[in-house]
Amino acid sequence: MAKTSPSNPNKKTAPQPNAKVRKLRKRIKKSKQTSEGIQSYSNRRRNKKRKIATSMLAIAILLGSGGLAIAAAWISILFISNPQQVSWLNNFVPGWVKVGSNEQRPHTVQEIQTEIKNQQRIVGEIVALESDTQESFLLPIFRDRNNCNTDCKNIVELRIYHLSTDFEWRSPTKKYYDLTTQFSVTGPEEDEVIAPLVEANAEETAGSSIPLPVSEIGRFDKDAPNPGIWYYLRGDRSSGTNQTAYGYVLYYNSDRRNLQQMISWTSPTGDLPQWEQVTGNDEKELVVRQTVGLEPRLRVYQVQPTEFVVNPIKLSEITLKPSVLQDEAYRDALLIAQSGLWTPAYQWLQFIVKQKGKIPSAAQAQIDLIRLHSQLTKKLADTSWASPSQSVLADLIDGRWGEALKVFEASPQNTAEITTLLKADTGRLESRIDAALQINPNRPEVQAWKALIIASQKDTNQAYKWLNTQSKISPDSLSYIKKLLAQI
């Protein structure tokens, strides 16, 4: 029989949980295990879905890339074999790119002419582009004008063609040409064309903004600068005795195969622009004549470089504003030139240049423009005119004040005719007189013409009042001018 150890009354034992507490603890433990299991299951499921999505995306990318590669290869094959089947690509490329267009494939000259006729337009004569029209050519396209009796065809487009270099279009019997340039043509507006006539009071109305037609194209073969090719477009306008020519100057850049409009031009004398040596530079300048009656006007353009690759040059007009030299005497000379006193201005400028020595090329260009006008006015003044009024007009335009007074005094008939001339002046003579007085207010011959023009347009009393304002006029000059006024 086993012995039992006696119980120790001093030893404390932990209290044992009852049945309810034990059940609660088991339930909590089980709940934790279940929650962890659910969370672990959810994570596993999420990771599985992510892997499936990644795999599907990779497969889609591979399939898409392969499809694009196949599509690109197929489009390339069609573009080479039959470009017309991929012409729908024009909806997704820039306007200057043409894919599979019938108009862009090479054509024979006969096909080109047929196409133009089908568009109800008129084929012009082929214009030489370079030395051989078999290699390239310019083709003007015309259209009939409505409500027209004479010269009813006007140019609406210019096209440039080059012999195709594609192997596919080489033929021993036919020549195929690529269309390399299309240039739309609209004539200059009427008010621009007749502007020189309006300024000279030779036209009563200023004209409209309606474009005038151009009907002729030609090439500047003589004296035109190189490289490149220069053309002109021309139209003609008749109004009374005025026969005005007008149009555009075009430049063709052979390297870039680019046709560019440089300037518009108008000439009341009906003259085409001409290339002339004006400034003494290596290249000649383009001169446009706008003389009306005895009033000279020339517009001179220089060829100058630009920063544009496609259009590397431009035509820049030589003007008298602003003054190139910051010199008071030089500015005064330009002032009297702008008033129309070309010869006195040029004489003054020659003296200034002699003093200064070397001057900038831009200043020399302004001087050369004045010299060119002076040559015209001197030629007119040297002409023997049958009419006293024309003789006086030519002298006054050239600044020959004393010679003009001699004609005025020659006979009563001369006096009456010249008085009528002065009365009809619209400002071109008086502006010259005022400019001369501004530079030298004490010149008796100029003072005399100022008094005469006031007396002709107003009355002699007004002329006397003006003379009284001239404090530095000499007694002899005053007596002489009053004698002239008494003849009116």
User: What percent of the residues sit in helical stretches (DSSP H or I)?
Assistant: 40-55%
CA gyration radius, whole angstroms: 45 Å
Largest sheet: 5 strands, antiparallel
Number of strands: 13
| H/E series | HHEEEEEHHEEEEEEEEHHHHHHHHHH
Oligomerization state of this entry? single chain
Report the total helices.
Answer: 14
What is the mean predicted local confidence, pLDDT?
85
Polypeptide structure, described:
The N terminus is likely disordered. The radius of gyration is 45 Å and the shape is elongated. The protein is 42% helix and 18% strand. A hairpin with an 8-residue loop joins β3 and β4. The strands form 3 sheets. Strands 1, 2, 3, 4 and 5 form a 5-stranded antiparallel sheet that branches. A 4-stranded antiparallel sheet has the order 6-7-8-9, with no helix packed on it. It contains 14 helices and 13 strands. It folds into 2 domains: 216 residues, no CATH class; 158 residues, no CATH class. α7 runs antiparallel to α8. The protein is of the alpha+beta class and 488 residues long.
